[in-house]
Amino acid sequence: MTDTKHTGRAAPLYLATVRVDIIERMPNSTNGNPRYRVWFTTSDGIKLVAHTRPNAQFAYVMPEPGDMALACYRYARDSIVLDDLQVQR
Length: 89
What we know:
The protein is mainly β.
């Protein structure tokens, strides 16, 4: 598995190179920031669905479906939270 586990927080963070498959707009956070649900595939072929953090800065500049990106995500109680998603050029 190519994911790299980082510790030091309550939930471990994972870094993986992913292909963005689908991006779906969600209602804004309570602070008015944009939120998204993102379907992506890791380089190992694992398909995941995650949502952006309520106040994620990268949500203002989301990649397009089909783009390769570096994803930083963590497993929450009942979902996967996307902490960062940077397009790889």
